[in-house]
């Protein structure tokens, strides 16, 4: 009787959890959502002006690099 209770507890515990495919699907959806939150796009390959943020399923999440204005040094000369 004790073994039967342990067996039934095990069966109910295993059957109530999410299946592996449901868990993977949820992870894929979460990754795509995170990609869109950083203004990225899931594409087959990224362009040279983009970087890979993470992976949406098997495709990379491509995010445009921030444009950084070139720093110019102003040379000032004093004439006396």
From TrEMBL:
<dbReference type="GO" id="GO:0042742">
    <property type="term" value="P:defense response to bacterium"/>
</dbReference>
<dbReference type="GO" id="GO:0045087">
    <property type="term" value="P:innate immune response"/>
</dbReference>
<dbReference type="GO" id="GO:0005576">
    <property type="term" value="C:extracellular region"/>
</dbReference>
<keyword id="KW-0929">Antimicrobial</keyword>
<comment type="function">
    <text>Has antibacterial activity.</text>
</comment>
<dbReference type="Pfam" id="PF13841">
    <property type="entry name" value="Defensin_beta_2"/>
</dbReference>
<protein>
    <recommendedName>
        <fullName>Beta-defensin</fullName>
    </recommendedName>
</protein>
<feature type="signal peptide">
    <location>
        <begin position="1"/>
        <end position="16"/>
    </location>
</feature>
<dbReference type="InterPro" id="IPR025933">
    <property type="entry name" value="Beta_defensin_dom"/>
</dbReference>
<keyword id="KW-0044">Antibiotic</keyword>
<keyword id="KW-0732">Signal</keyword>
<feature type="domain" description="Beta-defensin">
    <location>
        <begin position="34"/>
        <end position="62"/>
    </location>
</feature>
<comment type="similarity">
    <text>Belongs to the beta-defensin family.</text>
</comment>
<keyword id="KW-0964">Secreted</keyword>
<keyword id="KW-0211">Defensin</keyword>
<keyword id="KW-1015">Disulfide bond</keyword>
